């Protein structure tokens, strides 16, 4: 059991081969693995057995907080903190408070959306072992990679390489940790 | 799912041009993952910019300097250097503000709303138009600050209690503006950046020099394109689109409240929000065409921005143009139908008063000329389309002039009626803001991929004729 | 019609920002001019350094070691004094803060003020602090000293002692000051051969000449409009131009103003040669050229049966119908009618007026007579004598006390040339003007707020002029100059000694103190004088048909030119025309159309071989064959404000055509000059926009509610206005449009009270005038002879103020007492509030208008009012500083502010008392009573702004015979 490597990286030229390999690896019992593609590939995450993204939940909570917070701020400022007779209008002119409430809902939702995505992806993270994999640069152009990590309980340098070879990848390489 | 393969027709052949637009391809058939990455990324990584880039950037920079002069003089002397007066206390500044905000609408509309309704043709133009949105909103944001009598205390409009415990007056549409515009800018930026991250990673991985590698690397935040990344990314991207869609519609509605909430005849009208939004998208797409048509020629991007894109945008302009026209008709009709003496007199003055010729120019540019878009040959011929779009851009500026100035110049109290004459500095500021816009645009073309590469890759796999 | 006039407006190139910095009054121009400005200031300061030591005690900011009696820092003191113009004194009450006068009010006890002032008196304060004032004695233009002048002058008078002062001539303006006249008598006694001449371009020669013809002696006519039911003005601007205008305005308004249960209302007929303030208040106005008015008077007299019809009538049928109706009206009101002729009408017309009054039995009732308070000798003849002497070279010493004859003397006298022939010439004047430039000696004259003097009101009441401040510069008064050759006393001693001798008695000092307190000696008005008519023979001038005439009258704002350096007056919109910063040739619309002239087109006028080119201004109600010129503009030796302002029409004015010039030739030059007006003229249909409401007295009696119609405010509302109900004061204002005569006094009173800056011609042309209250004039009917309606428009203080709703920073909000506040410090200058104000009463500081640098102007400012900076909005505050002052005072005494105890500046100055301000929460207050009146209406009330300022619809009282 060697642990000085990050994992075994298999390189494919075709997205379908990657999908097949990922599915098979999953069925074979591998858990700690990840795939790298130049564009979003539907179902890939499912094949790798990932749960649904939690971004939507974060956005929902943030948006609700933003909206209620916005309305409260206006009500507090106009009615409680500094009540003024403006144009003879009532202090609590709720229709006039709607636009800002709406905008703040959107704003906080959107902020939470991007930040949540980065958070869940552990970004920014400028260094990562997989960058050391030979030819990995092509992962952002036209190559597809599957990496079974050494931390996987079922990982075994020889067996796993054998297993991967069954999918006839272009190349299998050890990714140094 | 499986990605299948077949071949399609070549683009821009006369046959396809005149055939049903939807049959036209969104991307040239010869394109591969490598080629798109190379062609689009190469523009910023390896290619030397074409001579026309230097020329355009030069002109833009000069105009930007004009803007700086105008602003310096303004801060030194005060808003009196403009033509504004009592009763016309709002002049070019507000006209320009509304105009730029309107232009800023196409981007998010294309990226967000068209994404939600699965219009794949958006893919090759959304990056560029989002950038355009940001720059237009940046220009727009300048004016509300500059037009203040005391620009240096603009922050008093922000929501915090001052030393006396006084808050902004949340019933004022101007405060709504602050929130609407800043929200719009922020959300557009997030959306744009979210889309950029994977492409920045591509640039990082292909960067020829270490410096570029480091810079793009930092901007890419260490994106690896892992399945986990893509999963969250796609989810966030879709949500941002979902949030941005209603935002687009709200922003110009709020801007229209600046006028609709006031009691001034010619402003106080319930039709304003929808009519402003339509107008915004109208001018937005016009601006997109004015930018895209030259660029696709100069950078030879006909394979990515095809005749079909032009056609679709032209059709949207035609549709929004009709909505705007309906708005004009309704304004006139309601003025007459209300039986309100002030409204009627305002309308009569607008059409036949001292500024009458401007009103008719507006009708010509925004209503009559765009009818040419009924003809497919005009929609798909870049030159003619460019001309019509230009007319619409000018027309929409004129529309804001008519709304802002002619209404103020002739309101309730005849003794106070006065004309408004723009000064040199009014024009300089307008020209300067265009300079700012173009400068930002040219810089963008130089350093960032103007087309979303990863989405093009996706398009290749999905398009008929995608390679396996 | 509105469109047409707006298109004209669109055509006026004055809107193009041509001719920048043409008129840079110190206060107006933004920082670029600062350097040049500071240079000027440095110079004037250097000059001022000499007398600075006399100034220090007033201006030095040090705590009082010994607190002067009754002076509490922060509380203003009021002193009575008087201002004389054309010889006639009008009583004033001056507000003084820590020793410097800051506001001029009328003296309520004074018979020719009654608490009000006109624009000239209001603006006189600015002259006191004018940085361009003459500040030091000049000898041949070089700075000199009073002492060296005194020795030189004494030497001269010594030299002429031998030949009893032959060759000594003294030229004064019209004098009513008993002290000064006695000083002159003493001097003339000492030098029997010396001569006293009296000349002023605005004089009463015609009136006195007419009186002589009619009664055989020069008597002064006093009108009692309060007793008159039918009034006829023959080209007399008795509400504005007459020496007794303030008393006239009040009496006239009292005969008309809206009162519950008023049974009848006076009726004013005006025949005039140029649209005047009086004419704009007429129930029936007939534009006739000045020559035609003599004819008119003649025909009227004939119609009334005073005399047999002479030559066949030349009048048009309309005019004749007019005369018949008028005659009937007069005959039905014998004893309660009044006919008054204008100063610019020839003596004959005055004679006719006197005879008609006598025939109608008005003399003794609506008109009375007294001895004149001023020397009635013909001033033009007096000046003619001087000119003869000058040109004959027989003048050794010419002493000019005040005035500017070089500028104002008739052109044919060629005064400047004559002046140079004088061996020696001494000129006393408040400014270095055209005359000073030609004189050997120039003596700076004290402003009347700096000197002791006295004068007589129009009714003879002796008024004391007492100073509010030590002389700011090395000035002297006329008294002191004359006294140089006798005793050399200070002006206080001169005036005091004179009266102590005149009123020698045990308790003179007591009377004197009382007089200083009141501002006048009680019971010194002249007794009424019995007059008897002599037979008269009049043949009116037959007028050549088709000949063009010019009429000359003093400028409504800068008078005969003496106020040319007064920025308040230069920027004040002239009545009717609303012109600022310039005078023009006023033409009728019909004539302009015939000649193809537009506003601002330059024409060449030729009269008796003299030429003048100036721009034209089309004036509704101007007779077709008559051009009206105002004299006073176009000064050459004047301060920065008056430079290039207007055109000098004196160059056309000769001694044989002082008021009327006949057979004028006019040529269009093709040139254009940007004239600037604050209001474009519209004939407006008030049935459409319910902004201005009017009706006839008959309508009112038939339907008292007529003004209410079509302005009930909508009742549906989403919110409850009672949310902000208060049991404290609820301030409100009512303006009686029937009483308002459109004299503009409110505008200047507001400007003075509220530190409102002057912006200059260029800024006015851009539509950036700063006046907080404006007087709109709406024309109704044909442009040839429209009804004119004046409407003062301050901030309406709306309860549902549209301006407040849209302010993003809460810089304009409401207070508990219903005031629409403007918080300058919070304002960021979005100008949204102004856009949303339907009345357009808000004013914006587009540049740094208020002058932070001119140290001389600073003491002018009201210390209780913020001086606004660049980029903030401002507007009428209902004089909130006065409200606070009154509240503090009443709270000290522990009671509410009494009704009438608190007055806004515009209300206090109004001669017609058309503006009433007070607590609308108190049903007994005057304002509440007015608002309860049926005529009360809200301007644009249908917008549901609920304005606190409301109007009482204007009532006219036309003659049924003429309305049909």
Give a written overview of the molecule:
The complex is a heterotrimer of chains A (177), B (468) and C (964). By secondary structure, chain A is an alpha+beta fold. Chain A is built from 5 helices and 4 strands; from the N terminus they run βαβαααβαβ. A 4-stranded antiparallel β-sheet of chain A has the order 2-3-1-4. Chain A is rod-shaped and about 80 Å long. Chain B is globular, with a radius of gyration of 23 Å. In chain B, α4 (92-103) packs antiparallel against α15, α7 (173-206) crosses α8 (210-220) and α9 (227-260) packs across α10. Chain C has 30 helices and 39 strands. Chains in contact: A-B, A-C, B-C.
Short description:
The complex is a heterotrimer of chains A (177), B (468) and C (964). Chain A is α+β, with helices and mostly antiparallel strands and 177 residues long.
Taken from the alpha-carbon principal axes, the silhouette of chain B is: globular
Summarize the helix and strand pattern of chain B as letters: HHHHHHHHHHHHHHHHH
Mean pLDDT of chain B: 89
Query: In whole angstroms, how far apart are the ends of chain B?
Result: 13 Å
Low-confidence stretches of chain B: 1-21
Low-confidence stretches of chain C: 1-32, 47-61
Largest sheet of chain C: 7 strands, mixed
Q: Spatial order of the strands in the main sheet of chain C?
A: 5-4-16-15-14-6-7
Oligomer state equals heterotrimer
**Which structural category do the helix and sheet elements of chain C fall into?**
alpha/beta
Mean pLDDT of chain C: 87
Pair with the most extensive interface?
A-B, 65 and 67 residues
In angstroms, what is the radius of gyration of chain B?
A: 23 Å
Q: What structural class results from the helix and strand content of chain B?
A: mainly alpha
Helix content of chain C: 25-40%
Total of DSSP H or I helical runs spanning 4+ residues of chain C: 30
